[in-house]
Structures are given as structure tokens and as C-alpha cells.
Amino acid sequence: MRGIKRLAQHLDISIGTVSRALNGKPDVNEQTRARVLAAAAELGYVPNQAGRALRKGSTSVIGFMMQTGTDITGDGDVFFMSVFDGIQTVFARHQLDLVALLCSSEEDPDAYLQRIVARGFADGLILSATRRHDSRIDFLAERQIPFITLGRSLSDAGQPWLDLDFEGMAETGVNRLIAKGHKRIGVYAPNDETNLGYVFLDAYRETLAAAGIPFDPDLVFRSSSSERGGYEMARHIAAMQDPPTSIVLTNEQMVVGLYRGLIDAGIKPGEDIAIIGISSPQTNYLVPKLTCFRLSLRDLGITLAESLLATIPAFAHHYPVGVVRKVLPMELVEGESDL
User: Fold this and answer.
1) What pLDDT is attached to residue 6?
2) Which residues partner with 99 through β-bridges?
3) Which of 165, 208, 182 is nearest to 300 (CA)?
4) With respect to CATH, is domain 166-295 assigned 3.30.70.660?
5) Closest alpha carbon to 309 in 150, 129, 90
């Protein structure tokens, strides 16, 4: 490992210039910054993070808060790993590190976040699984901690956010099934206060109403967002006297469990019931091929990271996009699962 003095000698420029280049300061031209970063990589330069943090009053760490547990993330969730890859791709440009902050399903997320903030663990935060009313948003805004949310909320402190287009998913998916003759269209909604459930259900109701189809609360299925939850949903459907003829799922993990549960109950996906879901690596191997909504999770991570850094003064000049508040569309990929 070589220090900043050796790096400056190697480049024949001042230690101050090297330091400003490494820390992303705007008064260093891009050619010099590129030389410094290339030499740092070549010489294996690693900054003294403890001293650096004391001098800068920062940690160079960004935390991603997520809740864990089989009822939340399932047994093999790859959603966040793909998002993390995109985030760290951006952070690596600035010698920042992403750390996953794992809040147990048995712990109050508000108390967990307060503990993390009190420790001064991170320079900024990314919050996931936003609730309909989310006190975490007001808490971070009051303390002037840079953050972005993956998901909207009625709690609004003017912070940047990104969300998937669940309204568009409901409208497109339900109208596609209606066009195929379906009137008993079931949907999945989270069994907690996660805001996406409200957003999706509101759009689902409106789409049914526009087609003159009455809303039936028995066709809204609530369970854990995991393969087990999908399996339990299938068993519920099999036991119904008047089951849905089609279903739209907003969680990618549930699809595999739903397929398995339906098959075990003697119900053939794509023949006896139409299914539209969200794509994941696991769903690629389902038979019949799933009709699904898809987006690049890695690109989502890149946009999350850049949108957060745009609000942090030390990095904002790299990402002059202002406060990003954007709904990201998803592409419908046709399969054979929706009759």
C-alpha cells in the first residue's frame, strides 16, 4: 500500500492537488483527475479512511436500508443484489462504498434507523420499502441527512425518489386480460403498509371501473412477498368456489411459488388460469413462459446512486440533474402464461 505523498511524487504534482482530485473537488480539471485516479489504481493507493473521515467529517459510506426475513425478502431474493451492483458501479467512481443496512423483520425500522444515524455510520442513505406514511422520511429530512427513497410515500420532505410504474403495470396488465375476455381478475397486494400496494390497487380499481367491471375484494390476495406466499395464494385460489380466471402479481418471487402451488392443486398455469407477473432470473425457466413486466435492475441502481449524489454538494457537479422524482416504466414481455 502506498500513501498520498508517494502518489504525488510519482505524478510530480502537489499533495493538495492529488487530495482534491481523489476527493472529487471541482477545482481540479478532469485531465488531472483522470491521471490521479489512474495512478492511484496502478500503485494500489488506499487512503487512510480513519484520518480522512476526521479531516472531512465524513465516512465515504452510503447505507442502503432494507428489511430482512423470509416473509419480506424470501429465501432467494436477487432483486437487491442486481440493484446493488448498479449502485456500487457509480459509487466506485468516487471512492464511495455501499453498505447494506439490514433491519430484522422483528425490529422496528424507525428505531433501527435512529440508531444508525446516531452512530454517524454513513454520509447518505437509500431507503427501500417505503410505507404509505413513513416517519423515516421526516426523520432524515429534519437532520439534513442526504437520502433518496426507492418508492413513493405520502410522507414528502421534497427528497429525491424513484419508483416503478405500478400504475402502468395495473392498467396495462388488467386491460390485456380484459381484452382476452377475463372479468374475474385477481391481484396481489402486500399485507403491510408498503405504499406500492396502495398505488397498484388504486390503479387496479380505476381500470376495472373504466371497463365497467365491479371491484370484488375477494380477488385481492394478501400474503408474504415470497415463494411461500405465492404457494399459499395458489392453495387459496384452489379452495375458492368462484376463483379468479386470471391474476396479476407485483412481486417477482411469488410467481414461482404460485406456479408450483397451482400445479400441485391440479390447476394448469396458462390454461386454467392466466398469469401476468414481474420478470426475474427464476421466472425465466417457468413453463409456460411467463408474460411479465421487465426493467433493468442494474440500471435502476445506477439511477438511484446518481440521483442521490446529485443532492450531495461534494458530488452534485458530476450529476447536474437536480432533485430527481421519477416513475420508471416497465416493459411488457409477452409469454404464454396469460392465455
Assistant:
1) 81
2) 63
3) 165
4) no
5) 90
For β-strands 61-68 and 97-104, DSSP reports them as parallel
Tell me the C-alpha distance between 82 and 296, whole Å: 9
* Pick from 51-60, 196-205, 221-230: least confident: 51-60
d(Cα 187, Cα 234) in Å, to the nearest integer?
Answer: 12
Where do we find the cell 406456479? 259
CATH architecture of 4-47: Orthogonal Bundle (1.10)
Domains of the chain, by residue range, sit at 4-47, 61-163+297-328, 166-295
Q: Which region holds residue 207: left if phi is over 0, alpha if psi is between -120 and 50, else beta? A: alpha
Q: Cell 386454467 maps to which residue? A: 272
- Cβ distance 16 to 5 under 8 Å? no
Question: Which burial class, exposed, middle or buried, applies to 162 when counting CB atoms under 10 A from its CB (0-12, 13-18, 19+)?
Answer: buried
Enumerate the β-bridge partners of residue 102: 66
Is the pLDDT confidence value at 41 over 90? no
Query: What percentage of the chain's residues is helix, strand, coil (to nearest 5)?
Result: 45, 20, 35
φ, ψ of residue 19 in degrees (nearest 5): -60, -45
In this predicted structure, which of 4-8, 279-283, 293-297 has the lowest mean pLDDT? 4-8
Question: Residue 54 class from Cβ within 10 Å (0-12 exposed, 13-18 middle, 19+ buried)?
Answer: exposed
Instruction: State the pLDDT at residue 69.
Output: 65
Lowest mean pLDDT among 16-20, 71-75, 140-144: 71-75
- Whether the ω angle into residue 109 lies within 30 degrees of 0, i.e. cis, is no
Pick the CATH number of 61-163+297-328 from 3.40.50.720, 3.40.50.2300, 3.20.20.240, 3.90.70.10: 3.40.50.2300
For the segment 251-263, the average pLDDT, to the nearest whole number, is 94
Q: Do domains 61-163+297-328 and 166-295 have the same CATH topology?
A: yes
CA geometry: angle at 179 spanning 292 and 271, to 5°?
60
Residue 153 CA to chain centroid, in angstroms? Answer: 14
- Against a cut of 0.85, is the pTM above it? no
User: Residue 313 has which C-alpha cell?
Assistant: 454538494
